[in-house]
Amino acid sequence: MTEVNSDNSQHLLITRNLQVTDYDQLVQIMKKCYPMMKGEIWLKSQIKRLIDIFPEGQLCVEDNGQVVAFALSIIVDYSRFGDSHSYEQIIDDSNFGTHTNDGDVLYGIDVCVDPGYQGMRLGRRLYDSRKELCENLNLRSIVAGGRIPNYHKYSDDYTPKEYIQKVKEKEIYDPVLYFQMSNDFHVKKILKNYIPYDKASGSYAVLIEWNNIYFDEEEKLIGARKTSARIGVVQWQLRSVRSLQSFFENVEFFVDAVSGYQADFLVFPELFNAPLMSEFNEDNAAKAIRKLAQYSNEIRDKMVEYALSYNINIIAGSMPVYEDEKLYNVSYLCRRDGSYEAQYKIHVTPAERSDWGMTGGSGVKVFETDTAKIGILICYDSEFPELSRILADQGMEILFVPFATDMHNGFHRVKVCSQARAIENECYVVISGSVGNLPKVKNMDIQFGQSAVFSPSDFAFPQNAIVAEGTPNTENTIIADVDLNDLKHLHNSGSVRNLKDRRKDLYDLKLKE
């Protein structure tokens, strides 16, 4: 756990584990940092004890061989203490009998930086090392009782709660609390008599926590949720087919090909079964699509069969479904375990309504899969940001958008809106469209499309926020890998945090009952 910053300056900083031989240097730092506290100086025997029981948790930064900052921590079974405890209870009267390798929380018991090194972000180095340790040890979180050393200046005017709010709003500067909140710690509660001799803080402390987003409560050797997903996208050529069997042969070709790359998902476009409608050319558009709907259950069942036999989760584009004397546009998630679920198109286009008499569905939901939490919005639905935000609030990681557009302008609406959905909801968005033409099939006669996989826009993702794109208006297939852990990091530490920074005190969004 060594971090070196070597440049042409006079400093040579190294982050490393603390040694007992560093003790005299620690004393000098503590005397400078805690002028208002008595009984705060760690004994050499106590430092030795910490290093003996948990060497990985005792960290320091040295500059040219001189220790200038340090951090001490232990692992605790947090259920033994809960959110109401004192510092002495946590450290077991400095005996550290509370430390256990079977615990679930890394508890920070001290961080101290030589005042002469303020502004060099040494505290951040130590906190980053703690976070790395927490992740590597698969601990639930980091917890600490944060001092509020400037509170004594304002105690006559503000309660501790008011003081913390003022610090959050940057009306008051508190070096410890401000630093902790800047490093992604959130305030859980105020602790009374946490350190009775901490006069600067009025004996108060702020219980703070940093959650390990990678925490895995129960490691599984087989069947664990993946940290990445491989996605196959079919840019589907609309062509006349002789029969349903011929249609299935075309579909199975892509399922077979993409599954050979061990993909987790395969997505087809909206109304990908439209070629079967050519046999109903003699009928008007509304009657023809209702006859096409007669095939939908059989196609759905065949897609479930393919998902099982080829071991891949299939988003079966969309198909017309006629039920209760209403016509819907429905996408099916066919899981590789043999189960399936449906997502109805919510917003129907003016052409779908006037030519086909189509009706919109009434709800959206996130679907659990063995790889990621996904959402499905069919074509036009991607142009309504409320729907994807509802899905994002339910933990969606990948949004699939099967679409069918006839002209460039319609395609660009879907493309640009889908890119926006990826950024504003901090998720991946996969669009799959049809190309080619179907003579004499009204409302599906010509197609323009370019399938793609979009990402959020931040350092961990492609610079143009496009993971992969197909060749425009040509039948082809995309295979793309996406990292789900990058999304977790973005939610908590991104350059901007669209989900976290929403003003929920001003507005909220939910589906009507």
Core attributes:
single chain; disordered N terminus; 25% strand; alpha+beta; 513 residues; 14-stranded mixed beta sheet; 22 strands
Largest sheet: 14 strands, mixed
What is the average per-residue confidence, as pLDDT, rounded to a whole number?
Answer: 91
Q: Write down how many β-strands occur, each being a DSSP E stretch of 2 or more residues.
A: 22
Structural class: alpha+beta
> Total helix count?
13
Structure in words:
It is a single chain. The protein is of the alpha+beta class. Helix content is 27%, strand content 25%. The protein contains 13 helices and 22 strands. It has helices at residues 23-33, 44-53, 87-91, 122-136, 160-168, 175-182, 244-259, 285-292, 296-310, 350-356, 385-393, 408-425, 484-493, and strands at residues 3-6, 12-17, 59-63, 66-76, 105-113, 141-146, 186-191, 205-211, 228-238, 265-267, 313-315, 319-323, 326-334, 340-344, 367-368, 373-376, 398-403, 428-437, 446-447, 452-454, 466-469, 476-483. The chain starts with a strand and ends in a 20-residue tail after the last helix.
SSE topology:
Layout: E1 3-6, E2 12-17, H1 23-33, H2 44-53, E3 59-63, E4 66-76, H3 87-91, E5 105-113, H4 122-136, E6 141-146, H5 160-168, H6 175-182, E7 186-191, E8 205-211, E9 228-238, H7 244-259, E10 265-267, H8 285-292, H9 296-310, E11 313-315, E12 319-323, E13 326-334, E14 340-344, H10 350-356, E15 367-368, E16 373-376, H11 385-393, E17 398-403, H12 408-425, E18 428-437, E19 446-447, E20 452-454, E21 466-469, E22 476-483, H13 484-493
Parallel strand pairs: 5-6, 9-10, 9-18, 10-11, 16-17, 17-18
Antiparallel strand pairs: 1-2, 2-3, 3-4, 4-5, 6-8, 7-8, 9-22, 11-13, 12-13, 13-14, 15-16, 18-19, 18-20, 20-21
Helix pairs in contact: 7-9, 11-12
